[in-house]
Structures are given as structure tokens and as C-alpha cells.
Design goal:
213 residues, alpha/beta, Rossmann fold, 8-stranded parallel β-sheet, 8 strands, globular
């Protein structure tokens, strides 16, 4: 789960962030932030400034050391070109005023009804992309704004999958704030498992097991 979460965030950043993005901020410094860091090293090798924020100073310091970055406040992390949030989501921690024009946000932490990592005002500043409408509106980053009636289906830009397929436009301007609300899809786990299987076959490692006679 941690690996596919990191990969999903990096793919979203590649599709929606500005091409000249040079700073990467992490709000929350748990396991998923480490995998998001690893994935962004592949998709965004030109990032030069990495800011890590967490209520646990030791966790923020560990992520900053792994990233070759620095520990900062949530406001400093949220002011980066690419922002990855991965917190418990019990209370919003990212304010609208902290997001800069042209930012891209990967909101990865909200996973139940009533949870959100960004204030509703911050969410409404962004052009929002989702992975699945039903999941996102029920338990993703947008669920609170949906239940309050401040965000509706027609306000959403579309799914990340549609952007990747070329069916929906991604970023429209350098100043636009984009946000990817990730709830996680089973197909991501299947895709990761398939990639690992093919790599194992190429390297001749592992053991074949017959599941059915």
C-alpha cells in the first residue's frame, strides 16, 4: 500500500504540477511520505528544495535527512511547488493562504468520512482531480466539502486516469492550483504486483506456485 500510494502521488505530480517545479513539501513524515519521496526522485529529479513538516520532530528530521532537505513548518511545506500531505486527517492542517499560485497538492491522508487535511477554503482554491468519485466524495479529501454542500460533482475537474488517458485536460495555466484527492484504488495494487512479478521473472528469482490443479 505504501509503495502504490507513493507512486500514485508522483504520477499525479508528473501529470499536474508545473514543469518548472523545484520545491517539494511534505506535511506529515510517516512511511507514505518516504515512498512519495522515493517516487518523486524518479519523476522530478530536478527538485532542489525539500521541506518536511510533522508534529513529531524526530519523524520530520528523519524524512529531511533521507531527502537531503530541511525541517520546516507546515506553512513552509505548504508553500512549495509540489505539496504532499499524509496525515491522520482528523483536523485540517493546511490553510488556504499558505498555497502559492501554481502549486500542485497531493492530498493522500483523508481516509474516512469527516476527515480532511486542507481547510475547505484551501480546497476551493484548487482545481480538483480525484481517483474515484464515490470513494472521494464519501471518504476522501473532498468529503467534508461535499457534505457541507460547498463542493459538487460539477466542480470537479475529473479523474487522474482521464488526464493520463488524454480525455481530460490537466493543468491549464502556470498560476492554477491543482489538487489530487487520492483514496487508493485496487487496480494500483494489481499494477504494482504485476510489475513486481514481471521483474522477478526477468531476474529469474522467486518460486512458481500452482494455485489450481
Amino acid at each position: 500500500t505504501a509503495l502504490r500510494t507513493g507512486a500514485a502521488a508522483a504520477v499525479a505530480s508528473r501529470a499536474l504540477a508545473r514543469e518548472d517545479a523545484r520545491s517539494l513539501g511534505f506535511v506529515g513524515a510517516g512511511v507514505q511520505s518516504h515512498t512519495m519521496l522515493a517516487a518523486h526522485r524518479v519523476t522530478h529529479p530536478h527538485v532542489t528544495d525539500i521541506v518536511c513538516a510533522d508534529v513529531r520532530p524526530d519523524a520530520a528530521a528523519a524524512l529531511a535527512e533521507a531527502a537531503g532537505g530541511r525541517v520546516g513548518t507546515v506553512a513552509e511545506a505548504a508553500a512549495c511547488d509540489i505539496v504532499c500531505t499524509s496525515t491522520p486527517g482528523g483536523e485540517p492542517v493546511v490553510e488556504a493562504s499558505w498555497l502559492r499560485p501554481g502549486a500542485h497538492v497531493n492530498a493522500m491522508g483523508a481516509d474516512a468520512e469527516g476527515k480532511q487535511e486542507l481547510t475547505t477554503e484551501a480546497l476551493l482554491r484548487a482545481r480538483v482531480f480525484i481517483d474515484d468519485h464515490d470513494q472521494a466524495s464519501h471518504s476522501g479529501e473532498i468529503n467534508v466539502a461535499f457534505h457541507e454542500g460547498r463542493l459538487r460533482s460539477g466542480d470537479l475537474a475529473g479523474t487522474l486516469g482521464a488526464v493520463l488517458a488524454g480525455a481530460t485536460p490537466g493543468r491549464r495555466s502556470a498560476d492554477e492550483i491543482t489538487l489530487f484527492d487520492s483514496t487508493g484504488l485496487a487496480i494500483q495494487d494489481v499494477a504494482l504486483a504485476s510489475a513486481l512479478y514481471e521483474r522477478a521473472r526477468e531476474r529469474g528469482v522467486g518460486q512458481a506456485i500452482a494455485l489450481f490443479e
